[in-house]
Structure formats: C-alpha cells, structure tokens
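Data deposition worksheet. Section B asks for the primary sequence of the deposited chain exactly as it was used as input, without tags or linkers unless they were present during the calculation. Section C holds the resulting structure in token form. Section D is free text for depositor observations; keep each observation to a single sentence. Incomplete worksheets are returned to the depositor.
Section A, Depositor: J.P.
Section B:
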Amino acid sequence: MKKDILTPRERFGMLVIDEIPDRCMVLPLITSHAATIAGISLREYCTNGIAMAKAQLNAIENYGHDAVSIFSEVGIIAEAMGSIFDYPEHDLPIIREPVLRAKPIEVITIPDPLKNGRLPVYLDAIAYAYRSVGDRIPILAYVPAPFTTGMMLSDPDRFLKQTLRQPQTVNDILHIALEATIEFCYSIIDAGGLPIIVDPLASSSVISPTIFKQFALPFEKTLIEFLHRYDLDIILHICGDTSPILALLPETTADLISIDQVNIQDCMNMLGKTQRIVGNFDTSKLAYSSEADIISGTKTMVETAKHTPKGYIAATGCEVPIQASPDNVRVFIETAKEHGWYWD
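Section C:
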C-alpha cells in the first residue's frame, strides 16, 4: 500500500477547496463501535467524555482512518431539553419519556451546553480529541438536526401524526429545537469540533418527500446556513433510502452529502457537480460478510465514486455496527485507501 503524503486534516482541507488530494478520505462512521474495541461499556462511552475521546483515539490508532467521530445517539439535545433516557450497560441510550408527552412546549427552555444533560460529555470528548490530534485529524461532532430532535422531544409516533394534523405545533417544536441546536454548535466549534448534521428520522425510510420538504429541509437549511457564517464546510448525513429526496438535497446548502441506501452512480449523476459525495458501503457487510466480499465491494464503490466531479469521501452508509469484526473494518479502510489514490 502507498504511504500517505498528506495528513487527514490536509486531505480534508484540499477536498473542500476543490483541489485533488493524494487520495480520497476514508471515513467509516466509527462511533459506538469504538467502545467495543476499547473494551469499555456503552454506558461509559456515552456518559464519560474522556472515555469517549480515548476510545475514538484508540480506534484511529488501530484502524488509521481519516477523522474522529464524536457521537453517541440522536437523543442528546432532546435529553438536555428534558426528555428522559435510560442507559443500558451494553446498548445505546434509550428514550423513556419524551418531555412533551407530559409538558407543554411553553415550559421547554434552551439548554446550556456547558451544564445540561450529556452536552458537556460531548464537549469534553471534542476538546480532549482536539488537544490530542486536532492539528492532524478532523474532529467531527455529529449533531442531530431539528427534525430528528423534534421526534425525541415529542415521541416519534405522535410527532409524525402532528405533521399531518397539527403542523403549526410541529413548526413550534422545530423552531425551539433549532435554537437549541445552534447554541450547541457554538460550543462545539469553540471546543474544536466540526459539526456534521445527522437527520436519520428525516429519511425517506421514515417520512414522505412531502413531509421532508415541508418540515425537515427548511430547518436543515437554516442550521447549515448558520454554520456557513463560520466558513465551515458541512456534511449532511441522512440514513436509509434517500433516493426520493436526492433532488431536494442541494436546497439544504450542505457542502457534502452523506448517503446510505442509494445507488451511488445515481447520486453522482444528480449531485456530483455541485456537492461532494460521502458514502456508502453497506454496514451490514462489515458485520456479516467475508473479507473477500468486503474487498470486492469496497473496490467497486471507490473506483466508481472517486471521480465524482466535486469530490468524494469513501465512507460507510451508516454507523459501523457496534459488534462489527475489527478485521472487516480494517479491510474496508485499507481497501478504500488502496483504490482511492489520485496522485501518482
């Protein structure tokens, strides 16, 4: 395998100024999987910022991918606003009581990222990682978009019904979720993180394109435009099938679009001249496929997508499974690097 010429930070920097780096970035979405290879419980990972950061740095050392991924689960902002979560020892936090199930929206306040819920855990993790490797490696902080946070405030089933029956209520929830998200992003940037916006509950696997356009997209756009004021290039990740909304994604103004269950060639054809594409290896294969299948699939994906006109990051389509085989993850990363070279 060729020896890297650029650092991951330099590589990302060249990508976002439309220059060709030595090779495409390799960004498996290694989040809670880092706890597994660090040998710590998911409860500790999700509630202790230093433990989260150390697990992420251990993953970087073991795998050699191109970014730290600070993330636990999408309820973190809603929890800081009053929703109640349980913390299993060996699973991700689970919502027990959405705050708006029992309280009116008027009593909800904007959380202080330095004090409320697990937001300080995130900030501790970002700051520790940035001090450790921030000069060489991007520190990505995954931030749930307002639509996803809204579901965690209100209860997913109730929230989806309200999009049809009480649209003004939904908009009120989304506005307060947006305000809370912006406050959190201020602190993330101060700590050294680059916000990456995740909106899994806005997927076409969950809602219709009509609901996406009416409720999710405007708040994604407002949030991303706020972040653009800081001259940041922003990744938007939406899980599942987003084929029905691909044509709408440029309206979010995201600089990089991270895809999951989408034909990558179709995505390149539709978005590749205006947005950088991130994706989209099937994460189930990291858990269940042979190394030979992973090598073949990764090679095909990278050689297809690395010439996306605006730029490409080789990534998984969603989070690496918590119990994925480390050997499979390593094979994905090494194969993506090997076939992602641009420079001779």
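Section D:
The chain has a mean pLDDT of 97.
The domain at 8-339 is CATH 3.20.20.210 (TIM Barrel).
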